[in-house]
Amino acid sequence: MAVTPLETKTGTVSPTRAIVGTVMSAIAAHWILFLVGVLVSRCMYKRYASPLRQYPGPFLASFTRLWKVYSTTTGRTHLQHIELHRKYGPIVRIAPNEVSIASPEAARNLLSAGKRFHKTDFYGVFPPPENPDIFTEIREDVHAQKKRVANVPYSMAAMQQLSPFINDTIELFMRRIEDHRAATKNGSNKSPIFDLGAYLHYFAFDVLGEVAFSRSFGFLAEGRDVDGAIKTIDNSQAYNGIVGQIPEVDFLLRRNPLWKFIPALNTKNALITRMALEEMSNRRPFDKENAGLLRTGDGRRDLMASLIQGHLKDPERFSEGDVFAVAHGAIFAGSDSTASTMQSFFWHVLSDRRVYAKLNEEIDQAVANESIPSTGNLSWNESQSLPYFQACLREAMRVRPAVGLNITRLVPPEGTELDGHHFKAGTRIAVNGWVLHRDQATFGSDADFFRPERWLEDEEGAKRMDRFMFQFGGGSHVCIGRNLALLEINKVIPRLLRDYHFELAHPGREIKAFATFFVVQEGLEVYIKKKPIEYP
Ligand code: HEM
């Protein structure tokens, strides 16, 4: 078709150029309107063109990940997800390309090894990004190589060998309680209230220092958060949780080279990172002769020594950087998680007089029939002989699991079927322990409530429930530190319960909980009496 040129004052132009020109000047004149139009169209496209449009959820979430950012900043992601599933049903759209699933069966599939659901870029934000550890490594093949090396020192047998150091840390904990009681008696304490939650936190950290580096961080010794190290970790986890929802933002913030020039934000200055770096240099040169052992130490094989050995065996696959990253990462992954689990245990047990009385009865009876010792520490096997205690621990991990944010995986290239629904490649599927563990079909119609007896009623039922517990994740990414966590919990809690009587200082008051990745808790304050109870 012939195009007729248009005549203008300056000559002639083609109609196409004329139309483009008119549109451009309209945009220039009304650019704000234009921008809003583009944004609205983009949002509508994300909301309605996606195959996930059929799933209900918060309106904002259907077109922007900002809803997830908002949810994480509230620190209530775990509770919000329970509410979301109650409101919208078993599958909820929580981002343009992401759904949260409430079904424990689907979660098992999602987390199973070999099903090719990979970790998302959320984990890449956790430091150190330049040398990911086992938790943050999202390349599955590299993760598998690192985990093979690290599995050895984390085995239950290896952890049992470190039991004496856990015992020493428990003794220190008991001394701190005695100091508190003595100070209360002689009047030098302003208040008889003991912050059990804080001390459980110090304990979990100090155990990790001993296990990872043969060094205590000194939290129990000083009875405080030395150098604000715990606060630093909690702040860092809060950052990871929020920025991890839109990982691209990390390049503007922590991965921005300018970040390092702000000393308070430079993580190299943090106590735990400093200690990990010092410990690396204390053990140099890495050679077969000293096999990573601390040169001035007592010859014990701590986590760092075992990791150095792993490095010496296969330096290509497990570099020096990996030794640092895995040992350092253990402190981040293992401290708040273990502390939170113990705090939840005490909070639930002490909030329910019936449960606490029954637990005390079991422990007193076990002392009387000598299945646990009357003084000193308990072994792993001894604490396993306390079925009601084990039921309370399981129940605490069910009702209040330590991880509060979602565990999210990517659908593999071939797409997938979950819970009878098809999801295409690249869709993000999220599960949350707080939601999964309240599934009534699995845990009973009273799943919302803390009732330890459910684990003791019928053996088959308990086994079935156990298959759907996700407090330690699952599959190839199952928690590598669970043996250590369970060992220390099984040693310290029965000892505390055997030796002391606890009473909540503020009965009925909720413990404060803020989900960063782990649920960080505060406010577990108690009165303590020595058993058998002495009355003044
Ligand atoms: C009761 C205490 C603990 C709980 C509830 C817990 C929970 C979890 C969960 C749910 C995951 C899976 C996260 C995911 O897939 O996104 C995980 C992974 C991990 N945990 Fe723990 N954890 C605990 C203690 C520890 C300890 C003591 C350590 C180390 C000393 C540790 C180190 C790790 C590591 C390295 C991973 C990553 C594993 C992988 O991706 O292969 N955790 N933990």
Automatic annotation (TrEMBL):
Keywords: Heme, Iron, Membrane, Metal-binding, Monooxygenase, Oxidoreductase, Transmembrane, Transmembrane helix. It holds the Pfam family p450. One of its GO terms (molecular function) is oxidoreductase activity, acting on paired donors, with incorporation or reduction of molecular oxygen. Heme binds at C479. Belongs to the cytochrome P450 family. Its cofactor is heme. The chain crosses the membrane at residues 18-40. It comes from Coniochaeta pulveracea. This is Cytochrome P450 monooxygenase. Gene3D superfamilies: Cytochrome P450.
